[in-house]
Amino acid sequence: MRARVIIYNPDLTAILLIHRQKKQRNYWVVPGGGAKRSETPRETAIREINEELQIELTPAQLRQLFVIDDEYFFLTDYRQKAVPDISGEEKERSTSTNVYRPAWVTLSELLKINLMPPALSNKILAVIKYRL
User: Fold this and answer.
1) Residue 104 half-sphere exposure toward CB, CA atoms < 13 A
2) Which pTM does this prediction carry?
3) Which of 64, 114, 116, 119 has the fewest CB atoms below 10 angstroms from its CB?
4) Which residues, in sequence order, are CB contacts of 63 under 8 Å at separation 6+?
C-alpha cells in the first residue's frame, strides 16, 4: 500500500508535485510513498510528507479522495508559497541522473505535464474545481 498527498495552495491555484528525472524518463508525481509495518494509509501519508518535504500534517488536515491501484490519495490545503526542499531518502538518492525536484504546478499547467499515473490529472482537476 502507498499513500500520496495532493498539497493544494489556493493562493497560487497550484499543487505541489515532485518533478522526477530518472535516467531517460522525465515525469511528475504526487509526493508520498510506501507504508511501513502496520501503518494506515493516513499515517503513511503524514509520515511520507514529513520525511520528503518536512511538512507536518495532522490527520484532521487530510481528506481521503480516491484509491488508484492500491495507492491512497489525500488532499490538504497548504498556504506556504515557498517550495520546500526535498529531504529524507529522496535527498540521499538524488544524483545528476536521478533527480527529485519539488515545484508548484498551476492547475492550468496540470494537463500539460507528464503526471503519473496518467489518469491522475483529470481526477485532481475534478476534485479541486468542485471545491472552487
Assistant:
1) 16
2) 0.94
3) 119
4) 74, 75, 76
R_g (Cα) of the chain, nearest Å: 14
What's the pLDDT score for residue 3? 98
Closest CA relative to residue 29, chosen from 121, 95, 122 = 121
Instruction: Estimate to the nearest angstrom the gap between the alpha carbon of 93 and the chain centroid.
Output: 18
Q: Phi-psi bin for 28: left (phi > 0), alpha (psi -120 to 50), beta?
A: beta
Instruction: Give the tens place of pLDDT for each residue, 17-68.
Output: 999 999 889 999 999 999 999 999 999 999 999 999 999 999 999 999 999 9
Cα–Cα distances (Å) from 82 to 53, 96, 102, 120, 131, in that order, read: 12, 23, 10, 24, 23
Phi, psi of 68 (to 5 degrees): -125, 115
Domain membership of residue 65 as a residue range: 2-131
We report the CATH number of the domain holding residue 100 as: 3.90.79.10
Asked whether residue 10 carries a pLDDT value surpassing 60, the answer given is yes
